[in-house]
Amino acid sequence: MVWAGVCYGRRTQVHFIDGIVNAQRYRDEIPRPIVVPFIHNHHLMLQHDNARPHIARICAQFLEAENIPVLAWPAYSPDMSPIEHVWDDLDRRIRQRVPVPANIQQLGTAIEEEWTNIPQATINNLINSMRRRCVALREANGGHTRY
């Protein structure tokens, strides 16, 4: 699994987790060492999707105990999240590499390199589009939008 976070003006490094990720592993390997310090240092709010490890009781209780504000997120709207569009950009960048990564080690290196190559302006533009995305989703009554 690959995890990374974005916000206006900055991003985290990418983090790799081998194997199956349950709620406890997720809490111990992502929020505890990465998310909590990042959010506290930059006075942010967490927005994550509704993946089971993210919304599990032990994660929710941990984030609450750490005073991490969490933005409520609709259950079936991954296309509304800026990070999903950043992942798409990252995927395109990796698929365009010559040569294409041939093994897991090369893929990890490519992910790290291309992650840093994504212009921060691209991330900022995606975040700036959130108001328009939310309005479009509301006008579509939760249905399809052009985003």
Automatic annotation (TrEMBL):
It comes from the Eukaryota. It holds the Pfam family DDE_3. Signal peptide: none annotated. Residues 5-97 form the Tc1-like transposase DDE domain. GO terms for molecular function: nucleic acid binding. This is Tc1-like transposase DDE domain-containing protein.
